[in-house]
Design goal:
Blueprint (H helix, E strand, L loop, with lengths): L2 E5 L3 H13 L3 E5 L2 H11 L3 E4 L5 H14 L2 E4 L6 H12 L16 H8 L4 E4 L4 H11 L4 E7 L2 E8 L2 E7 L2 E2 L4 H10 L4 E6 L16 H10 L2 H8 L5 E5 L3 H8 L3 H9 L1 E5 H4 L6 H11 L2 E6 L22
Helix pairs in contact: 1-4, 2-3, 6-8, 7-8, 9-13
Length: 325
């Protein structure tokens, strides 16, 4: 299948193009900033890269220079061209066949998998920014067994979980090749399709049972989907609040595999630093803090300068944080 990479920090333009490309039968990978775009390019080797307009200029120029050395086709988003027309033009440029009017027959599944999928889903919804990461983190906290089925125009992807941890990923019915963590991150970055969670562990004997880190791919997917300034913008309303690690942070961090910059941000969350202070750190502190608040591993206390030690007075669901715009 022809593969395309979109690098665009604005979900309002990236997600409609993702959907239009998928409807044209193309394999779409998306990234929210140039750094994540280069990581996605090296991991997935797309034939065409589409660059959006909401990208930091210096970082975008560096990405363009790297891409030109690698020699894929590079295109720029045009605000005048309809998404469907652009998607059709890109499909033709890649030499991909027109999409089938009928969907492909479902790949065969084992009897245990079939039993689980036959059960009514406990939770369903459209895929939007953060929705799959939120679902997966909830399933991990509750040690749930089951299958997350993701329906897209080009087929159904499935994530198999035992005790809340991903043990196998099947993309369009086939086991994900290469790095399964990268496949899970790519699924979390996608902004089109719908999901359903089917409970049960009947499939256990039919999967390879390779345990993946429960949370690290989720954060990686969110960082692919939105640029760091979007996370900063989402946290701006809480800029004067004090942020610190919650009691549940230990188990979260064990599954997060933080890099050195993330560890520095975590070390600075000492109950005195405000959200705004943390945003001045190196790396990608805003996306890390946003994710920690969503998973309950961080909490916001009193406003800085309130004259008392910060105590948590909001829960992650009451912080006013939403998906980055």
């Amino acid at each position: 299948m022809a593969r395309i990479l979109i690098v665009d920090g604005n979900p309002a333009s990236r997600e409609p193009l993702e959907r239009a490309l998928a409807e044209e039968g193309l394999d779409v990978v998306a990234a929210g900033d140039p750094e994540a775009g280069w990581e996605a390019f090296t991991a997935f080797a797309p034939g065409v890269v589409v660059l959006g307009r909401r990208l930091p200029r210096e970082d975008a120029e560096e990405l363009i220079a790297r891409l030109r050395r690698a020699d894929p086709a590079i295109l720029f988003l045009s605000p005048e061209e309809p998404w469907t027309d652009m998607a059709r033009r890109l499909r033709v440029r890649l030499g991909a066949p027109a999409p089938r009017l009928l969907s492909a027959p479902p790949a065969p599944v084992g009897p245990g998998t079939a039993r689980v999928l036959s059960r009514p889903p406990l939770e369903t919804g459209p895929l939007a920014f953060g929705s799959l990461a939120d679902l997966m983190s909830r399933l991990w906290r509750t040690a749930a067994d089951g299958i997350v089925a993701i329906d897209r125009p080009d087929g159904t992807d499935r994530i198999f979980l035992l005790r809340g941890t991903t043990v196998e990923i099947r993309v369009a019915g086939e086991r994900a090749g290469g790095d399964p963590s990268g496949a899970l991150a790519s699924l979390c970055a996608a902004g089109y399709g719908s999901f359903g969670f089917h409970p049960g562990s009947d499939f256990a004997a039919e999967v390879r049972g390779i345990r993946l880190p429960a949370l690290a791919p989720l954060l990686a997917g969110l960082r692919l989907a939105a640029d760091e300034p979007s996370f900063v913008e989402a946290l701006a309303v809480s800029g004067n609040r004090v942020a610190r690690r919650a009691a549940a942070s230990g188990s979260v961090l064990r599954e997060l595999a933080p890099d050195p910059d993330d560890l520095a941000t975590l070390s600075a969350m000492d109950g005195r630093a405000t959200v705004q202070d943390l945003m001045q750190g190196t790396g990608r502190p805003a996306s890390l803090l946003w994710f920690l608040l969503r998973t309950g591993a961080a909490e916001l206390g009193a406003t800085a300068g309130a004259g008392r030690e910060a105590t948590p007075d909001t829960t992650p669901g009451e912080t006013g944080l939403h998906a980055p715009a």
